[in-house]
């Protein structure tokens, strides 16, 4: 694949143009594709002549290292101080300060997913239409809130495992504990226009006992009055806590949390390859009176919609894996899993213009002015790995962000994979 980058000095991310001559799909379809057997390499043709050049935005680049070897020791410091448009590489370790991202374009990318632990909540708030936020590879112990965002917000390869539901402040209405869908959450998207969640695993906390009653479990993810797309996520509701033998009549066990709960009339959610599990409702803790006088909690649903629309995409599977961070001048590797025999193309862009394309053709993140390159035909195994050349930023302290997405034609249907963001660093 021949990709040429005009490296311009960074003044401001928004001022560096990106000139990409888009390749019409009809041209792609007539490109020579090499069919391969399992284990063989697919040759990636170079871009046809006349495509022009691609100018990729470079960004300021910072390193967060809890051991003190980077520009910052806390993610929270970097998120607050780094100018809009920055790329922040986060080294493995434990970070203890609350993280707030507000009114800026920024990307936080952990070197090793699952090894970068944040003990406080992540909050992404008030992202404007022209801004984009990417958070990748963080273990968020106290979850996250994404709220009041008009611009694109992406969570990629993040995990949470809520440990215990907090006891509510103020009076507790224990009569509500068994009701379906009643639980809370530490994983909330609210009042947002364009949120993407890719390859994340969120687990709601189990309920806890309060006197003789059991509290409901938390939901794996709540989307409220927002437009969102979910790719390949695991969402698990927490189990409701069991009541003990009644100290009042009746005692109430907690409802299980939902895997995904969609609420609010303006919500539109598209999801594909979603593994969602509702938590079991609480029953009773054996005591002298058995379960006499105990109201059992409702089981959580895998997906519960109380307002708006949630649609599972019915297009054929096309899964895409790519590294989140690569060294300049090296070869990155991306992986594809899909329908054997399907022709596949790779689009490369600086940024994505978010849109939901409907369930018949899957979720589409239409790359802004993207170039598309033929990759090949998927072998009988349906799986393929390919290297891609990594450009180099023009100087120290700079990085390049690439947006990659796969396109395939399967059974006459245009299918798009999840988008993947790649940070190229010196």
In short:
The chain is 3% helix and 40% strand. The protein has 426 residues and is mainly β.
Task: Give the secondary structure arrangement, pairings included.
Blueprint: H1 25-29, E1 58-64, H2 75-81, E2 86-90, E3 93-95, E4 99-102, E5 106-110, E6 116-118, E7 122-125, E8 132-136, E9 139-140, E10 144-156, E11 159-161, E12 187-198, E13 201-203, E14 209-210, E15 213-214, E16 221-224, E17 227-231, E18 234-236, E19 251-252, E20 260-263, E21 268-272, E22 275-277, E23 294-295, E24 303-305, E25 309-312, E26 319-321, E27 325-327, E28 331-337, E29 343-349, E30 352-354, E31 365-367, E32 371-377, E33 383-389, E34 398-410, E35 413-416, E36 420-425
Parallel strand pairs: 1-2, 2-5, 3-6, 4-7, 5-8, 6-9, 7-10, 8-10, 10-12, 11-13, 12-16, 12-17, 13-18, 16-20, 17-21, 18-22, 19-23, 20-24, 21-25, 27-36
Antiparallel strand pairs: 1-34, 14-15, 26-28, 28-33, 29-32, 29-34, 30-31, 34-35, 34-36
